[in-house]
Amino acid sequence: MTTLGGHHIAQESTLISTLYRNTGLLALLTALNGEGVLPVAEPVERHVLNILHQPGDTHGAHTDDYPLALVLFIEAPQASGGGLLEFNPGRRDLRSLDEPGTCRLHHRAGDAYLLRSDLTAHRVTPLDRTGTRRTVLNFAYTIEDHRAPATDSAQRLYT
């Protein structure tokens, strides 16, 4: 997997930074979420690019530091090419992804989803053929009264 952190993206693209803070987008996300959605102050995690581009590339089981992830698909493999989102609704335990109730979803280029990513264990299945790519732009958002994360995992992954 190849990754690019938000601090690098912000240096190269005013468009992505502007879209991230767009008031119309924030209003839509607030309506979908049912409570106020706020931009993340931390520049590395604010928006990140994740690219799976080789057979076996995956984004392993995890939860995110911030409450909400808006994932925008730039490139996506065919449903039979791997790169599927797996999550177990309402379950934070990473082992829950191997239990009944786990959902597996295919997305196409141009699709997007909003996930309560700090409380939902999720992962991406490995790509399983050469010439297949899965490229997503992930916008992280927070909610009022959410405590800043205490981990350094994003710093290690995206810097």
Question: Would you write up a description of this structure?
Answer:
By secondary structure, this protein is α+β, with helices and mostly antiparallel strands. The chain has a single domain (2-144), classed as Jelly Rolls. The protein contains 5 helices and 10 strands, in the order βαααβαββββββββα. The chain has helices at residues 6-12, 14-20, 23-33, 43-46, 153-158, and strands at 2-4, 37-39, 47-52, 59-62, 68-75, 85-87, 103-105, 112-116, 122-124, 134-143. The longest helix has 11 residues, at 23-33. The radius of gyration is 15 Å and the shape is globular. It starts with a strand and ends with a helix. The mean pLDDT is 91.
Shape: globular
The tally of helices reads 5
From the alpha-carbon coordinates, what is the Rg to the nearest angstrom? 15 Å
The CATH class turns out to be: Mainly Beta
CATH architecture: Sandwich
Order of helices and strands: EHHHEHEEEEEEEEH
Strand content: 25-35%
Summarize the main sheet.
Answer: 6 strands, antiparallel
Q: How many E-type strands?
A: 10
Overall structural domain count: 1
Mean pLDDT: 91
Task: Return residue spans where pLDDT drops below 50 for at least 5 consecutive residues.
Answer: none
Q: What is the CATH superfamily label? A: q2cbj1_9rhob like domain
CATH fold type = Jelly Rolls
Distance between the termini: 14 Å
Going by helix content, strand content and strand pairing, the class is: alpha+beta
What level of helicity do the residues show?
10-25%
